Amino acid sequence: MSTSLSDIVKTDRARIFGIRTDLIEQFVDTLQQDLKAKVGLVIVSVFILAAIFAPELTPYDPMAQEYGVFQPPTLSGAHPLGTDSYGRDILSRVMYGARISLAVGLGAVLFGGFFGVLIGLLSGYYGGWIDDVLMRAVDVMWAFPWLLIAIMLVAIFGQGFWNVIFAVGFAYIDDFARITRGEVLSVREEEYILAAENVGLSDFEIIFEETFPNTVAPIIVQFTVLVARAMLAESTLSFLGLGVKPTTPTWGAMLGQGRTFLTQAPWISIIPGILIMITVLGINLFGDALRDAFDVKEGDEA
Asked: CA-CA distance, 272 to 250, in Å (whole number)?
């Protein structure tokens, strides 16, 4: 009997990896057939490349000040996107700002995803009082707007790159916990889970080797969607003066600093604002392609 159950588990593992291959193939098909998916992929790729290679691509030091303040954008000039009130090159600052946005977006979602997925896995698998305690804690977090949580944490721990990642990531733990718990509950009574329990696999093996692989698709979609939201969160905090250090070039900080000069030099705010809009749009289009490929329902993210 033990051998039979072991065969069931092994067979199902092969089936799981087969599904992973099918999902990859389906995602590639979605990219080939869906125009908005291609647009999203291009935007995301350009954004990532600009962030990674900013030191090599930027024409000036983003912190260097010059006498030529408020120079308007001129494609043929020394400053294609103009300069700000301190004579700093806007192009260099927005490219370095992309690095901050990408780092905060990925860092915050990885932080929130790690703890949120862990809470969801434990809550959904064990149930009972463990589920009650963990989900009530998640409900408390869910009751507060993310911006309020982020502002509170920044006020407590102060400004700084890592503090912003922690503040934004903490606000997203509940999103991952809820979606993971829902997926675990849907696979908890599957035959391969029961077989894994009967052959004597440990709870750790069942949770992370059998259960987690079957919940990963909606988590990946949620990860992509929340990266865009985390970037907006960082921009919001920087706009309010609660993000990273004020001298650090970030899109939100540039947006906030330029609002004083909207009539005199509107490009200081308009350019980072447009970049925020385009980048978030591209990530959302890419996330929609993932959702279509993995067949994840909208309601699963609520």
From this structure: 9
